[in-house]
Amino acid sequence: MTTTAPDVCDYDFYTTQGVMTIRAWRKLSPHGADRLYNLARLGYYDRSALYRVIPGYVVQFGIAADATVATTYDASNAAARVPDEGLNEAWGGTNGRYWVSYAGSGETSESVKCTQRTAELFINLADNAARFDPMEYAAFAKVIDGVEVMDRFYAGYGDVNGCVAHAEFAFACNGPVEATMYNTGISYVDASFPKLDRVGWVDVIPDPGDLRGNMHGEWIQNEAGEGALSWLMVCLFLVVIAAGYARRLTVNKKMGNRFLDFIWNTPSIRALVTRLSERKGVEILESSRNRPGEWTEAEEVEWTLREPPASPPPPPRPPESEVYPASYDVAP
């Protein structure tokens, strides 16, 4: 849990409604970024509930599905708290739309600073800078892809049970009791709030600037980005080079085949090759796949070894009288 997060890191949250990508910049909140990096890669958010969905305001999550793990990161445990950090406005931090901050314990309108951060995160569904920036909620990440996924999160239960801080939204407060979620885990949500959406798992993509989205430091724009475009241009260039090389090989092969076809169809050369093949015991067979007028591909000419003809049997041995006539007898 002490590993330092990359300067820029993407988190793909696979939820029951689709994938949303959150990009975090460590410069905006070093302690907060380190905590998210360690929790996400160790599976803390897996199977957890998106338990607070208030359209036009926030989506909140971050209580672990396992009660033992959840209680470890309860704000009442001082050892689990992230060191306090203020909002880094100098580097572009703000609680604007789709920006992500840690939830502080005991959030009320009287809060002057977000303290006691542990693991719970909230995503601003609207521009909440005027509300949260003065309260020092240290925004350090932003949803850069999949914002439409959040529109599908179930919001029918309203805010958490017993909510009093946001009466202006005129929203129901029939959601889960946070303390019970910490003590019981996901079984409480399964039994009492089955319609709530969940986080299935989180993929961590360290230093994603060179692969997708904006390059380092460009968190204010948060558009599709130079990194993806740069890699796309490189890939297209390599494809063009490969296609040109393949075309050249194809043309050279056809020209070579036509030249060989011309040589083969020259009667004198063909007769010479035929005679040589007969001497060497090689027979050339025309491929049945070629039609008249087509050049012969090299692989469509079949070459087979022909066994040399067997030697004729020797003539029968003549009778002895013919081999040694009497006139040739040597006198004793």
From TrEMBL:
Start and end residues of each stretch annotated as Disordered: 287-332
Gene3D superfamilies: Cyclophilin-like
Highest taxon of source: Eukaryota
UniProt signal peptide: none
Annotated TM spans: 228-246
Feature: compositional bias, Pro residues: 309-318
Chain ranges of the PPIase cyclophilin-type domain: 18-153
Keywords: Membrane, Transmembrane, Transmembrane helix
Gene Ontology molecular function: peptidyl-prolyl cis-trans isomerase activity
Protein name as it appears in the record: PPIase cyclophilin-type domain-containing protein
